[in-house]
## 1
Amino acid sequence: MREKIVFQVKTTRNQKLYDAIIIGSGASGGMAAKELTEKGMEVLVLEAGPPVNPARDFSMHTWPYEDMYRGFGPPGWRNIDQWMEDTAGHFSRHFYVKDSENPYTTEPGKPFLWVRARIVGGKTLHWGRLSWRLSDLDFKAASHDGFDVDWPIDYKEIEPYYDKVEEFVGVSGNHDNLWYQPNGKYLPPMNLTCGEQLLKKGSEKLGRPGITSRVSMLTAVKPHHKKYNRAACHYCGHCGDGCDVGAMFSSVSSTLPVAAATGKMTLRPNSVVRHINVDPKTGNAKGVSVVDRVTYQELEFQGKVIIVAGSTLESTRLLLNSKSRQHPNGVGNSSGVLGHYLVDHFGGISGMGVFPTLAGRDPVNEDGKAAGLFIPRFRNLDAKTKHPKFLRGYGFECSSGMGRNPGAGRFPGFGKEFKETVRKWSTAPVYMTTRANMLSRFENFVEIDPGGTVDAWGIPVLKIHIQHSDNEREMAKDAAECIEETLKSAGAEIISVGGNMTAPGKIIHELGTARMGNDKKTSVLNKWNQTHDVKNVFVTDGAAFIGAANQNPTITIMALTMRACDYIEAEMKRGNL
Amino acid sequence: MFAQDNKQPSAKDAPGPKPSVKLYSIFALQRDKAFTGEFETSKSKYKFTFAPKSAQVENGKLRLTGTFSVGARKVENVVATLASIQGGLGTVPTAINERPLKSSSGLPLTEATDIRGFVGAMYFHLSPIKAAALGLTIDMSKVQLNARLFPTSETERELQVVFSDVASALYGATPNANAAAPHLAALNQIF
């Protein structure tokens, strides 16, 4: 008789009870680890991806000519197993997931580009670093224009946390005194190039302030930066390949070392969380089930508090997958709102020109700095700036200066004349691109794929439903017109303006899907990032956002995380957690 | 700077998933008319091919029937049911990119959407495979085939367009089996 093969999986239950289990080690998870360990709590940080070793994994100062493929990698490498990892370069590809192991699904004709970084440090290893506070124009947007609902917090409540985060992280920038783009605690700003100064003047002629971008990069080193061996930026421009001097904020340079130094953090990489386990008697969370990314060993960990910080959509996926008798639609989903109101900023509407006044000058090193010019939102700030065709607004990220790539592809021709043309104009380019608000709408949502698609560990994946509305399209049309107007005002010769709006997800500012709110029937979290339904589960990443505004979200995510950690400490002291 | 154990493999040399008990998903590239790839278990790496021979629509789902092989060992009549798709981004297939857009509002469009949308990956559920027939000792009772469409030949380009059309007809908000029929015929002609 043939032997029957029995496939059996054993689960190993870890008996230790942690004060908090933190899922994710990026901007939010790292900040939660720092804050809670500094408060004396024992935390377990579970990271789905591999560990990181800067000496081995960062490729800073590797030049394209050192690589046989000149930094581009062998033909088709990205298309073969990292096709959605839009910002991955051949030198940084290991910071990103393999799409071949991590599916998600969409509807035909409605693509979503989901860039994911499963690795210790998460997307902070290669983020854009622009660090803008939101203002009450954003937190109370519904009160301004009547669309959707206000956040349950206002600027005054979060302001002290912005202060603390900026001081800890190290943000360079100016005080520009714009009420809708609040000042912060800044290190000295990075300088604008000649072209950026010309563009700033051109924009200001139109009544639209242009300001130096505020970035989480050290332009000066304070004692708390020095303590963890962070150095000032040396303008090499290799930020996206891993900054091994720690000038750029990342969890690996900043928050995790602080948490590790307390001796109270246990970090377990390669830990893919399957679901949150709940106590059948109380309905509260008691821990998490994990599968090891490599070995497939099944594990369970126990914690008094669960902080879900795996990035916007991964967090929501985990909550949706955490179904139980007490929470049949997933943890935190008694409202049915979990997964809804997905947004991403959009870009793609851009312009490029050249400044004749800067053409043919001697080459200078202008390409290493992270901060260019930013033209903050100028539409729908008040009655005077109200636009008749759309709500909310957009800003422009702008840059000008010589780069490593002289832009030969922009010019026709060949031979000596062609080379002279390229050299002449390579000193004078100017670029503008849009970062625009997408309205939060219920019909843009994620769900667990009804087709039953799973990832490499058998965990059900998300199906993402999202598309732009006419509000975004009208905004895009206006942005293209304003780019042209600004370039002309600055004295640039225009080479191109316009383009298609980026597919949702491409700006990597996916937000919402577990929104905050005061009403548990219409929101997932309360104003402290705590789920209405399960008091010891907190969601501290971008999933908590009510709306996208048009500013980069990471500094707000960190401020909200810090605030939630203060609340957790207070509630624990009160015996409520 | 926070660094973990120097002796452990870190991100650059991190090992991939190596199941020992159950195979959940396998990844393949469409190459010519088949899907070829490699999977790893705790024991070894295996190259495989799924070669569809026919296509049908059943219960509103696309089903491909064909041969699944690992090396010289084969399992015939494996059915791959298309569970879901992932829309593609980047270079739109020429045949799709040339389609006239219906939008006449004059407002900017979103890249790779509407009738210029196309399929970048397809997720098939394979019928249970007796792993022993392939010389393997792992549970292959419910394997998902993650099929990436990244065409490099005329046949592959043609198949991507047809798969995109089938997906539009069957997997959108309003599935329409009749609309899929001509594309299904095209698919069978290619197979």
Note: The CA atoms of residues 47 and 269 of chain A lie 5 Å apart.
## 2
Amino acid sequence: MKNVTLTLKYVREMDCPKDVVIWNYYDHEHLVGTHYKYYREARILAEKDSWALLYRKMKMPLLPICNSTLACQWMEDNVMHVVHRDLMGFLLEMEVHFEDLPNDRSLITVIYNIQVHPFLKLFEKYFQLVFERWYEGTWEEDAPMRMRRWRVHKLGFKDFIGLDYVNKKLPAPAEFPEREYVFKPPVAAFSPIKTTGIGRPSISDIELGYNE
Amino acid sequence: MAATHDLKEPTTLGAVDTTVYTYVASVQELEKDGQLTRWVNDHDILLYIWNDEIKAISNICRHFGGPVGYRKHKDGKFTCLWHNWQFSCDDGGCETNPGTPLRQYTDLKLQNGLIYINLLA
């Protein structure tokens, strides 16, 4: 019997350029940091330019067990494609469309196409709920990360260096020169995510939150 | 948590020269969780109590700019939310990548329960 496809679509705006959001999607190390409540492990099995083959272990909302996926991710123009195959055999095709808007804003459209056995069509509402919670939960954690990344970029932040005026104990410049945010994958990795993979830290930590 | 009067004063009490020092937070706010973060004149400051002393370091992780003080420090270390880089509460030294310590703000003033910082020291 031929599989059926369940389609879910979410559209949101971000107060930062699209390249900051693309950076966030290609920063695989943040999965067990920013999203430590969801992701248990992450590993990059292969990576070149915008192509990445990934292993991820996660706990999705409303599902009683951890799931793991093999995912292939790549970019075509302003669309990121990710094809996931999970432990239970589901095939998930995900598209993320990135569009810049005026005033350093962007429009992000996420489309999930989940291929399932026709019998599982009966559980469409359940799948919808799982993915809705997954999307909402991870978006809420990613949004402040993207905003902060954009904020420090505008202040002159350089990866692995920081802010010059902070490091050198100088006054902050009166005006910061405009710097376009241009991202080309892959993201430089520091952890063993490309070899042994990385896990999340202890989850008993007390969160005090962002101050933005 | 140490009471306000037990805290070692960062510098001697006296009139605060506001051309040098900028207000960050009150001791009362800081004592609530023992640490807090605040943007002051484009510096993101992580203020915390460590060994009964008020200390301040940059809250901007030098890796990708993440928030070092998002979580309460544990076992003498801050762990940045984004990628779990760890920093010592003693001096902001980076334990994950030792070449990238956090900038320490060493000149703090406490007056009438208010904490001021010299951003250039």
Note: Chain B touches chain A at residues 33, 35-39, 41-44, 58-60, 62-67, 69-72, 74, 79-84, 96-97, 100, 103, 119-121 (CB under 8 Å).
